[in-house]
Design brief:
heterodimer, A: about 375 residues, mainly alpha, 21 helices, about 65% helix, about 0% strand, B: mainly alpha
């Protein structure tokens, strides 16, 4: 209850702001009521006032109580009538100099994070048909930005002045964590919204991905714009991208087209690798008593020079990209860090071993024919 | 080249994946060599003579797997592998049986040839059926589930998503290859 009162307090303060200032607060107030509008799904040509009242009655989510309070507010009716008189130019002017953090505050103040503030403006400007078209999607659009991102949909071509100024200010709430299902819903909603805008134009505008934390997906011409199918398409593309990467890893799979055959090859390859590991480990177990000798021999540089060919494979896997979560973190600490983890290891041979390992790698790098990787040019000395 | 051999200086390639591969191989070799020298110590003289070879095999295999898991931190499969290894060790300690680890591992490995053949037979035996989309998807699903058995932790909750499974597969394959290379080099040096 107290939180609801807080919401009301914030909203009430916003209303009082409205009474004092003129245009800017109008837009502010209208923006705060966007969730109600988008929920109604009935923004036809009739007067807005009646629609707002309808909307408030229909609103059945937690904000009902404070909505009803607003209903009784006389200033609200004034604002509604003012809203009907908005046009595009005024909107952009109003939104532009408007201080967005306030918008965000109220947006975040609402319990449900109902913050499609400027989205309403966008919709209002687009067309009424488009609005009706997008209204059934209002639910999805509503659920998605619960983290409080008011200006997500302002990436419309029509709203450029709005976008530039508002996107800067709203980076705060937009930076909140987004879950994957939200992303998929967002992509669905956004693409639908965009299609509504661009119904007349067939131009494919570039999506402004860098300002967002998730991916905009345009529905292609002639393809279903169902949110599920779009999310499915994104997922399929990601999976096929992974399959391509795997194809590069597994040798001899360049000519294979088809997921099933590719998976077959991967299975075979993994099995063969595992069998090799098992075989090698058994072989290692048989020579294990001589492992001390191995150490001594490793430490002698003659072996290293002789075995430069075999050492070349040390540390050099197949020449391919491996973007699988490898993060080059504290490298210098790695080599020295390992012995410290296990205190039972004798310290003395380790330092020598490290140097010899370094030798091995250098041998490997110089002897490698895979990348033409020379010691001279491309290695970077690390202090 | 001598200049690079100074104490405290390391030479690394500029490509990040080479860095990671080298790092993996270093860790792996470090760990495994030291673990193997510990195995070679006379601590094992208390075990039965008939079981010595199996014990050593088992322990070497354990250390090989553990080296893999520890050298490639940060992957779901490495975490699962570590977990499985520790569970097996606990089982061994509590039950006092030396066979449980091997038995578990054998099950894991014998699954491979047995389950895989029906999949390929299905592909070859029903060319008409494989033309339909549903059948193809079914095959793919079969193969994916089979892959889940191969990769450690594939049936777990971390890899329910296909995307994640495929990326984990990529890292697993890379690390397996590196592991094989390291082991081969170690053996060649003897």
């Amino acid at each position: 209850m107290t939180s609801e009162n807080d919401d009301m307090g914030l909203a009430m303060s916003s209303i009082s702001m409205f009474n004092k200032s003129s245009n800017t607060s109008d837009s502010f107030f209208s923006s705060c009521w966007d969730p109600i509008v988008s929920q109604s799904g009935s923004l036809g040509g009739s007067s807005m006032a009646s629609h707002y009242h309808l909307v408030m009655e229909n609103q059945g989510i937690s904000g009902t109580s404070h909505v009803s309070h607003y209903q009784s507010d006389p200033s609200f009716v004034e604002l509604v009538s003012k809203l009907t008189g908005f046009d595009g130019g005024n909107l952009s002017q109003m939104v532009g100099p408007f201080s967005l953090p306030q918008c965000n505050q109220v947006a975040n103040g609402n319990e449900r994070g109902s913050t499609n503030s400027l989205r309403f403006l966008d919709e209002h400007r687009i067309s009424k048909e488009a609005l009706v078209g997008t209204s059934p999607n209002g639910k999805i659009r509503k659920c998605a930005p619960e983290s409080g991102s008011p200006l997500r949909s302002c990436k419309n071509g029509d709203e450029e002045p709005v976008m530039d100024l508002s996107s800067e200010g709203c980076d705060g709430p937009r930076e909140q964590a987004r879950k994957k299902p939200e992303t998929e819903q967002n992509t669905g909603a956004n693409s639908r919204g965009k299609q509504a805008v661009k119904q007349d134009k067939d131009s494919s505008q570039s999506e402004e991905a860098p300002k967002e934390n998730y991916i905009h997906v345009r529905a292609r011409r002639g393809q279903a714009t169902n949110s599920h199918s779009l999310a499915e398409r994104v997922r399929r593309e990601k999976i096929s991208e992974r399959m391509r990467l795997l194809q590069e890893l597994v040798p001899g799979c360049n000519k294979i087209t088809g997921k099933a055959v590719m998976l077959d090859e991967i299975i075979n390859y993994v099995q063969s690798l595992q069998q090799q590991v098992e075989f090698l480990s058994m072989k290692l177990a048989t020579v294990n008593p001589e492992i001390n000798l191995d150490l001594d021999r490793i430490l002698s540089k003659d072996i290293l020079h002789q075995r430069s060919g075999s050492a070349a494979v040390l540390g050099l896997g197949p020449g391919s990209n491996s973007p699988y979560g490898f993060s080059p973190s504290t490298f210098p600490g790695t080599i020295s860090g390992i012995p410290n983890k296990n205190p039972q290891f004798p310290p003395l041979p380790q330092t020598v071993l490290e140097n010899e390992l370094l030798n091995l790698f250098q041998m490997g790098f110089s002897g490698s024919t895979m990348d033409g990787f020379g010691l001279n040019g491309q290695l970077k000395p690390e202090m | 080249m001598e200049g690079y051999m100074k104490e405290g200086r390391r030479v690394y390639p500029t490509e990040p994946r080479k860095i990671m591969q080298a790092r993996f191989a270093t860790k792996y070799l470090n760990y495994l060599l030291h673990a193997l020298t510990n195995i070679g110590k006379p601590e094992l003289s208390s075990t039965l003579d008939c079981c010595v070879n199996k014990e050593i095999d088992k322990m070497v295999r354990y250390e090989v797997d553990m080296a893999l898991a520890l050298s490639a931190e940060g992957f779901a499969w490495s975490h699962a592998l570590k977990h499985r290894l520790r569970l097996n060790v606990n089982n061994n300690n509590h039950a006092g049986k030396s066979q449980s680890y091997l038995a578990h591992h054998d099950d894991h490995r014998t699954k491979m040839p047995v389950n895989h053949e029906p999949a390929t037979k299905k592909l070859k035996g029903n060319p008409k059926r494989s033309g339909t989309e549903a059948a193809v998807e079914e095959e793919e699903e079969e193969r994916l589930t089979y892959l889940r058995k191969l990769i450690p932790g594939g049936s777990g909750e971390m890899m329910v998503d296909d995307e994640i499974l495929l990326s984990e597969l990529g890292s697993y394959v890379t690390c397996l290859e590196l592991q094989v290379n390291v082991l081969r080099s170690m053996l060649q040096l003897t």
